[in-house]
Amino acid sequence: MHAAILWNQVSLNDSAADLDVLVQCVEVESSLRRLGFTTVRVPCTLNLEHARNALLQARPDVVFNLVEALGGADRLMSLPIILLESMHLKFTGASSLAMLMATTKTKAKQRLFELQMPTAPWITAEKPIWQGLRNESQLPAKVMVKAVAEHASFAMDDSSVMTPRPGSQGVADVLQRVRQESERHRTPFFAEDFIEGREFNLSVLANNGQPVVLPPAEIQFVGFPAWKPRIVGSNAKWKADSMEYNNTPRTFDFPVSDQPLLDELEALARCCWVEFGLRGYARIDFRVDQDGQPWILEINPNPCLSPNAGFMAALTEAGISFDEAVRRIVADAGN
User: Fold this and answer.
1) DSSP-derived secondary structure for 179-243
2) Per-residue pLDDT tens for 136-177?
3) Residue 12's pLDDT band (boundaries 50, 70, 90)?
4) How far apart are CA 17 and CA 215, in angstroms?
5) Euclidean distance between CA atoms 232 and 334, whole angstroms
6) Residue 13: its pLDDT value, please?
């Protein structure tokens, strides 16, 4: 069997978030070879014709898709998948439609809302009224402002959490901030109700065509001052010498009293897999408010496969080797 590893080409001047794909390439390639595959790496840029020609030459039995962005934009990650689909190649991970729906956060939230699944109320500059309010008379007291289709905690720091003024003035505050961030970063932003509380990641891995939810992980916020938002921002993700990076460990240990909550999170993660048409592997992120109500934060098809990433940690906790995970991801490939 011959596998092509499709990855978004990067340069040494790119961010740590972008360069992480190189680590994933090495890990996946080594695993595929241990599993008996021959491999070829195919870099992908905005010039999709080059990638197409390389794939035609490689004639792979399967393509392991590691493309996370194109031209520095995460929102273009569906384009290489469309290419693979047009070439009728078998590839790992989400389809183009599933990727577009899940990774465009406002589209994902609208779908979750239609499915009556828990998602925090949100607002956009294009539709400047709050969507999905639990109580129509109560506007969010705190909001998180974040990119619609960029990931890996893009441009997310303490200032991303804001406290708007009460009433209609607060709506104007939020919309102004959304427009400012969109213009500043040249990509659409939106705002959602900031859920104070606990944060969980649940990884999902296919097995014989069925989703298996791996052990849940909770991100802990150790020693955070009372004024500091408890979020996994860009520092916590990528800046190894930062307070946030070193004080947001994950834990898989929970008291018995948490079991009903963990069961509910697992059921929601499995439901996201089915309703969004995910394949191979995924990670669902949650916040749980002070009343114990879980809220789906983000749906991540094709999550990071680096050794220090949350998906790998969940595999280790479940006693599943990386090679076995790669085998299952490849077995669940589609076209």
Assistant:
1) HHHHHHHTS-EEEEE---SEEEEEEEEEETTEEEEPPPEEE--TT--TTS-----HHHHH-TTSH
2) 678 899 999 999 999 888 889 999 999 998 877 889 999 999
3) low
4) 25
5) 32
6) 67
Where is 317: in which H helix or E strand?
helix 310-318
Instruction: Return the CATH number of 196-216+252-331, one of 3.40.1360.10, 2.30.30.100, 3.30.470.20, 3.60.10.10.
Output: 3.30.470.20
Cβ-based neighbours of 130, under 8 Å, separated by 6 or more? 121, 122, 123, 139, 140, 171
CATH assignment of 2-91, among 1.10.1060, 3.30.70, 3.30.360, 3.40.50: 3.40.50
Distance of alpha carbon 124 from alpha carbon 136, whole angstroms: 17
User: Do 2-91 and 196-216+252-331 come out as alike in CATH topology?
Assistant: no
Query: For the segment 89-103, what is each residue's pLDDT rounded down to a tens digit?
Result: 999 999 999 999 999
Measured distance CA(159)–CA(144) in Å, rounded = 9
pLDDT at 159: 92
- Please say if the pLDDT value at position 135 is more than 80: no
Where exactly are the structural domains of the chain? 2-91, 121-193, 196-216+252-331
Burial class (CB in 10 A: 0-12, 13-18, 19+), 126: exposed
* Token digits of residue 133: 């309010």
Instruction: Report residue 14's pLDDT band, with 50, 70 and 90 as the boundaries.
Output: low
Residue in the block written with tokens 């109500």: 293
CA distance 217 to 251: 5
Structural tokens at position 199: 């944060």
Report whether 46 contacts 8 (CB < 8 A). no
DSSP-derived secondary structure for 55-100:
HHHH--SEEEE----BTTBGGGTHHHHHHHHHTT--BSS--HHHHH
Q: Is residue 91 within 8 Å of 63, Cβ to Cβ? A: yes
**What 3-state DSSP class applies to 19?**
helix
